[in-house]
Write a structure and sequence with these properties.
GMP Synthetase, Chain A, domain 3, six-stranded mixed β-sheet, 23% strand, 9 strands, Rossmann fold
């Protein structure tokens, strides 16, 4: 039997449920999920291997118009993902009333075949509405197929995976069979802490934060993680820490629980909040946080 392998780039605007979908397709939580837009900032590969195939899912930030250098770096990772993709998984949310212009621009430049996903159909009021919406989308976008799905409810995700396997090119595997992702442990530690910042802080503050793991020490019975959280201003540092350290303690407690579940090991987490003016537009800071040109 022939072996299939290839890269599947997942794109869409923010808050369409891409991260929930990739976690479901991969079978593991690789991408952080919150109700806020632009939670995903990095390109993350999720690798699913079998004797006869290897699917490399590429999750990317939601497509936006850049406001500062961080956004430009994020959109650069989207462009790179599209260039690498053997297949493109276009995710559109049920709430979207019309196709996003920035997404359409990238679709027009894309040469890889497209599988469309109308996600969050659990929000629809009737099956007839879903069918009508899918048929309308098929007329707007040239796709191999269009699937109505709900990643949250695990509806039709197996159908999406099967479609991907049907259209994946013949190729040897790109990664070892037991490799799940291209990202190191430090990356997932920082993302889990950042997820909790998004979950427990309001308004724009989470968008001004970045997390850097300064030390990651794995001992026999415990992992010791030391994280620096960067904000733009002193006023943000005060809010993040909270009265009597309440906010920072809540973030740390919830992050530690998820870290222990992720690494299947006891975790000690220590956090420090630091001010870095204008880090979102500083090339050196962005490079240290993993945002390359």
């Amino acid at each position: 039997m022939t072996h299939k392998a290839g890269f599947v780039s997942i794109i869409g605007k923010p808050n369409v449920g891409k991260s929930t979908l990739i976690n479901e397709l991969v079978g593991a939580k690789l991408s952080i999920i919150t109700a806020k837009a632009q939670t995903t900032r990095h390109r993350i590969l999720g690798i699913v291997s079998d004797e006869n195939y290897q699917v490399i899912f590429s999750d990317t930030p939601g497509i936006i118009k850049p406001k500062y250098l961080l956004h430009e770096r994020m959109m650069g990772s989207v462009e790179q993902s599209l260039q690498d993709g053997d297949l493109l998984l276009l995710v559109i949310a049920w709430e979207e009333k019309q196709l996003d212009e920035e997404v359409l621009k990238r679709l027009q430049k894309n040469k890889a075949p497209v599988i469309g996903v109308l996600n969050k159909v659990d929000l629809a009021t009737s099956q007839e509405d879903v069918v009508a919406r899918v048929e309308a989308l098929k007329k707007e976008i040239t796709c191999l197929d269009f699937v109505a799905a709900s990643a949250k409810e695990k509806f039709n995700t197996k159908r999406i995976f099967q479609l991907i396997l049907e259209h994946l090119p013949e190729s040897p595997a790109f990664f070892p069979k037991d490799q799940l992702t291209d990202r190191p442990e430090r990356f997932f530690a920082s993302e889990i802490v950042r997820e909790k910042i998004f979950m427990y802080l309001r308004e724009e503050l989470p968008y001004s934060c970045e997390v850097e793991i300064m030390e990651f020490k794995e001992e026999e019975n415990i992992i010791r993680i030391y994280a620096d959280i960067y904000v733009l201003r002193d006023s943000q540092k005060i809010i993040l820490i909270g009265a009597g350290g309440r906010n920072l303690k809540k973030i740390g407690t919830e992050a530690r629980k998820d870290l222990e579940a992720f690494f299947n090991k006891k975790v000690y987490l220590e956090q420090h909040v630091k001010v870095r003016d204008n880090w979102r537009d500083d090339t050196n800071y962005l490079k240290s946080f993993g945002y390359t040109d």
